[in-house]
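User: tokens in, sequence out, please.
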């Protein structure tokens, strides 16, 4: 059974890959973590601003607005600055990860990942102070 602090929060997921976006959503839902998924960076930014999500999971490579830029905008906007960001990317070199943290990410998950690792990282971010 999930921690009530985790279960009461809806995680926003943004990825332009339909299959991966759905996979992340299903993995979190099966773990008892409420999730909402959107297709791309522009809808992610709008959804995060409208609902002030505690955690936003972003793919780095999205064609409309990449995850790094969404992260920067969330962190620089007073209304969303406390949102935590988990970036996901198949680009996982030291420089890629450093660029993610420089954009303001709270964590960086290389793809491919194990579902249990995704749940562990999301859970950790949801229970940590913002």
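Assistant: Sequence out:
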């Amino acid at each position: 059974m999930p921690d009530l602090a985790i279960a009461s929060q809806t995680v926003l997921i943004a990825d332009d890959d339909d299959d991966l976006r759905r996979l992340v959503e299903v993995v979190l839902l099966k773990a008892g973590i409420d999730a909402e998924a959107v297709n791309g960076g522009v809808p992610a930014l709008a959804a995060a601003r409208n609902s002030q999500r505690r955690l936003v999971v972003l793919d780095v490579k999205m064609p409309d607005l990449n995850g790094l830029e969404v992260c920067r905008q969330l962190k620089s906007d007073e209304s969303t600055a406390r949102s935590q960001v988990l970036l996901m990317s198949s680009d996982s070199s030291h420089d890629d990860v450093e660029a993610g943290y420089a954009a303001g990410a709270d964590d960086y998950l290389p793809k491919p990942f194990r579902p249990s690792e995704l749940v562990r990282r999301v859970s950790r971010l949801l229970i940590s102070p913002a």
